[in-house]
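Reading group handout, session on sequence-to-structure problems. Before we discuss, look at one worked example. The prompt was deliberately terse, the way you'd type it at a terminal:

> structure FMN-binding negative transcriptional regulator

The input record follows.
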Amino acid sequence: MFVPRHYREPDGSWMSDLIQDNPLALAVTNGGDDGPFATHLPIIPAHGTVIDWSDSPNGTVLLGHLNRANPHWHALRTGEVILLVFTGPHGYVSPAVYDVTPAAPTWNFTSVHVHGVIEKVDSLEETLEVVRATARTFESSFGSGWDQSESVDYFRSIVSGVGAFRVTVTGAEGMFKLSQEQPPEVRERVKRSFSQRACSRHRETAELMGRLPQKGQTKGQAEEWHDASHKP
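And the output record:
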């Protein structure tokens, strides 16, 4: 992914936060003569860990699963590379918001591209655990406390149709295009216009814009803002 200097993430924690808040990835692999395959699927960290890429993403193990009837599953090969594309908050920016002329429209967006090596899971018991771990992770983050214990037998009855895999991360890059190239007053107008929209996607984009370090703000001050904004 081409990431202009203006739009590089301030640190790796931006990428790990985006992945955990937006865990539905587009998984892309080379399909050989059939061309590339792309499948939308949920991704979680292995071992119930929290993704922390404040240092380096390399070596992180991620888990995913898809329908075995999907030709993409049959095309996956252990040892081959995979690209996982995660998309975060985004929104159209109208030149009218800038209140300057001349101006051009654009689209603010956030995305993380993760590269890794695939390992297909062969065991049904391990596949079942990937499915259960995925349900636990998302119920904890996005659900309402559903207890899966009474559904384990149902999980077992359908797990033969599930294909699970691991990805060992070999690299990642983040694109956080949030009007950084604009003067502070213009960027503030864009942020304010997003924050006033009814669409939650625009409001989330505004929140990320507010997280960007401002001129004169130290890295420590930016980290304090980040810690405070992510408290439950």
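Points for discussion. First: The chain has eight helices and six strands. Second: The first helix runs from residue 13 to 21.
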